[in-house]
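S., here's the first fold you wanted:
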Amino acid sequence: MKNILIENILELISKLNLLELSDLINKIEQKFNLKIDNNIEEIKKNKFDIFLKEVGDKKINLIKVIKEITNLSLKESKDLVEKKNSLIKSNLSKEQCDEIVKKINNVGGKVEIK
């Protein structure tokens, strides 16, 4: 029964022109207290990427930390450390970022969070 209702609603919506569709979206947002753009931005802000910016003077220790964080082999971790502005990890929560930043800073490395 619900699928038929949804299909009927979609069929009706597909007959709207762009202005009517835009108006419908605005009314749905107001009716259900939604703001689609804001929700997407909030989701995007909750995921971060960490890039290695500076190696520091404890390169060997940094390679070990990168190996631990990324689960890469020792050679892959070394290559990542030697590559400028390399992506360490992506799609992380703020808490995960803070933990990784602390580990890298403890061995003299510097990172950038985007």
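And the second, which I think is the more interesting of the pair:
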Amino acid sequence: MIVLGIDPGIAIVGYGVIKYENSKFKVLDFGVLTTPAGMSFPDRLKSVYDSLIVLIERFKPDAVAIEELFFNKNVKTAITVGQARGVLVLGAVNNGIDIYEYTPLQIKQGVVGYGRATKKQVQNMVKILLNLKEIPKPDDAADALAVAISHIHSSNFKDMFKMR
């Protein structure tokens, strides 16, 4: 199974691609998709979409796992990121890929085993579980890998998280 994990955003979208086979994780790629602040918003959305399609064509994931949005401060940012998240979901749907969503609490639980784990604890577990020499950078990429791990760990219950 190949899982594309996504940490949604508009300026920075974290992604992590993990192959899970014979009870072993293999990192295929991770990083960030970025859009410049000076670019028009519609063009930023198109750039996010186009970049996702490149990843889908390259890795042919069996599933896309995406983090649900959690904002408690800036409504404008939440709406902007929500629109970017919609474009990411659309990209997966247009390519016939099943999409699963996870809350930050579910991701922490799926990676660390504790829903109130700190960001540092999650990053350390990502490093350990994926047998990496160091914590993935930037944070958005580490977060996306955590989303993918969470999906793999919960794959027995995946229909609970399926969006469509």
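Why I say that: The chain has a mean pLDDT of 92. The beta strands are 2-7, 12-21, 24-34, 63-67, 98-102.

Talk tomorrow,
H.
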